[in-house]
Amino acid sequence: MTSNANKFFKYALNTSVSVNTSQDIISILSSFKKHKHYRFLDGIIDNLKQNEKNMSKNSDQNEIKNENQNEIQTIRSQLERNESEIAKLNEENIKLRQNLENLESKEILSKIAEFKNSSDIEAVYEFLDELAQKGYQQLMSKACEEGLWETDDSRSQSILHKASIEGNLRLVKSLIECGCDKEIKKYRLGFTPLFEAARQSHFEIVKYLISVGANIETKDSSKRTLLHNASYGGNLDIVKYLVSIGADINAKDMDGETATSVAAMWGQLDVLKFLISAGADKEEKNNNGETTLWKAFEYEKYEIVIYLISIGANTEGLEDQMKTLPMKVAESGSTKTLEYLISNGTDKETKDDHGRTLLICASEKGQLETVKYLISIGADKEAKDDRGKTPIICASEKRKYQVVLYLPTVGADVDAKDNDGKTAFSYLPPFFKKRLMRFSKNADNH
């Protein structure tokens, strides 16, 4: 090995080869190896080639890194220029907005003066809403100082009331921020804006007004609480929220009605269920001794009636109502409620004191879906009441044309007669009789 190296060294000294790069070295050594067959050059050449690859790779990486850094710097420079331009544009926009507001302010101040003594709440509402939309808070303050927000309509309703009713949170906030009285009440009803928002189911406004200190304990002129009004509105989220912050679920108004009574009267089943689950007394009586179930019967909210009965509400004193309940449900068209009653033992052929069956009751009121349900479970379509009238005669007498046309398609006898010898045709106008003729066996007699 030493001998070969010495020979190689002497040979290299006698050459006039120029070496500038590692690739030149590799080429020279490869040439030596080819002609002189020096094996020891193999390892040197391989190492040099690997070093060349590593250097090339590092060079490429450095080049990519430099390119990335250049690109990053370019983007940063562009961002700085853009931010500078945006800042200038923002300044220009502020100046333009100020100029526009200055130009419009004269016109707006003129309108404020014009509306100062106006009772046109719609026009004033639109005007103030526009100010809120444009963000003209100083001019809004001026309008409020001049009393525009207190503009009354025939119901003694302020702009703040109206904004709460309409669910206009932006305007509500703008008015409150300008110092408008959040506790202002309607003259006769005594509703605050918070009451109105609760009645109209505007949860965001309810939360906002409470967050800025609106009185949740206030009552209207009938001593109704906020929970009474929320129960009337039927928004379960609002009701739950009020209960969560301490609303009295058993509070009574001047008539002794609780929130559960209000929910029952207005058919707010989900609210009623929640209040009872939260501890409200379903047997609490009003000043007339009427329970929630009584009020549900009085207001013909039969889905509520069924629910209250299902959870054990006291029916004492309601015997007459309970007796006629199936008929009332059939008349109301509450098919699901009727299904519940029948599935729990009510006879589909049960009759009232006038001999009317459920099918007759539904037919008289034109409750087509309920009629179809009763027919589907086999209700007697030829049953007669005390006057001898069948369901189709009753529907014809009351001009319930959809039911009149449906019953013959399921086999109802259009020629059946009542105690006065009249048929369904006897109660129909001429133009409608023709549509029924095809079902008659005695068409020539009609």
From TrEMBL:
<feature type="coiled-coil region">
    <location>
        <begin position="65"/>
        <end position="106"/>
    </location>
</feature>
<feature type="repeat" description="ANK">
    <location>
        <begin position="387"/>
        <end position="419"/>
    </location>
</feature>
<keyword id="KW-0677">Repeat</keyword>
<feature type="repeat" description="ANK">
    <location>
        <begin position="189"/>
        <end position="221"/>
    </location>
</feature>
<feature type="repeat" description="ANK">
    <location>
        <begin position="255"/>
        <end position="287"/>
    </location>
</feature>
<dbReference type="InterPro" id="IPR036770">
    <property type="entry name" value="Ankyrin_rpt-contain_sf"/>
</dbReference>
<protein>
    <submittedName>
        <fullName>Uncharacterized protein</fullName>
    </submittedName>
</protein>
<feature type="repeat" description="ANK">
    <location>
        <begin position="354"/>
        <end position="386"/>
    </location>
</feature>
<dbReference type="Pfam" id="PF12796">
    <property type="entry name" value="Ank_2"/>
</dbReference>
<dbReference type="Pfam" id="PF13637">
    <property type="entry name" value="Ank_4"/>
</dbReference>
<feature type="repeat" description="ANK">
    <location>
        <begin position="155"/>
        <end position="187"/>
    </location>
</feature>
<dbReference type="InterPro" id="IPR002110">
    <property type="entry name" value="Ankyrin_rpt"/>
</dbReference>
<keyword id="KW-0040">ANK repeat</keyword>
<keyword id="KW-0175">Coiled coil</keyword>
<feature type="repeat" description="ANK">
    <location>
        <begin position="222"/>
        <end position="254"/>
    </location>
</feature>
